[in-house]
Amino acid sequence: MRHRAEQLARQSPIEAVRSLLRGQVADASSLDEVRGGFRLMAKSTVRGLRRDLAAVEAVLSEPTRPGELVELVEWDANWVLDEPTDAAAAAFLSQLADLLREAIEEAA
Q1: Does residue 4 lie within any of the structural domains?
Q2: 97 Cβ partners below 8 Å, 6+ apart?
Q3: Whole-number Å distance between alpha carbons of 67 and 95
Q4: 25 burial class (0-12, 13-18, 19+ CB within 10 angstroms)?
Q5: Which residue has the higher pLDDT, 49 or 11?
Q6: How many domains does one find in the chain?
Q7: Which residues span the domain enclosing 82?
Q8: Is 6 a domain residue?
Q9: What is the pLDDT, as a whole number, of residue 11?
Q10: Which domain of life is it from (predicted)?
């Protein structure tokens, strides 16, 4: 477990977000389903949710190459954007950050 924790700590924010999207969002059919998954995780621990939130916030605050946010959302999250733009992808990731914050706050 210590080795896994060290691996997670070394992940770049973009890698951490990619992992979150693939693991928690890609198979979800709605944001309500994603919310439910976050709430369920928060019942046992919020450490991972806090790490994921920090990664999403970092990705949103740092410059990315054109199209990178669209790739994250459409490829890694398997989510279809109405407009395939980085602005729309950033809005989706912001919603995801809100869901993470909500789950963390509810668990407190």
Answers
A1: no
A2: 53, 56, 57, 60
A3: 19
A4: buried
A5: 49
A6: 1
A7: 11-107
A8: no
A9: 85
A10: Bacteria
Question: Cα separation of 36 and 21, whole Å?
Answer: 15
* Contact between 104 and 85 (Cβ < 8 Å): no
Q: 3 lies in a domain?
A: no
Lowest mean pLDDT among 2-6, 40-44, 74-78, 100-104: 2-6
Percent over 70 (pLDDT), the chain: 92
Q: Which two tokens stand for residue 17?
A: 């977000």
Residue 86, amino acid? D
72 found inside a domain: yes
Q: What is the mean pLDDT of the chain?
A: 93
| Amino acid code (one letter) for 33 | E
Establish how many alpha carbons lie within 13 A of residue 102's alpha carbon, considering only the half-sphere containing its beta carbon: 15
Residues shown for the chain: 108
Sequence-separated (6 or more) residues with CB below 8 Å from residue 24: 34, 37, 38, 52
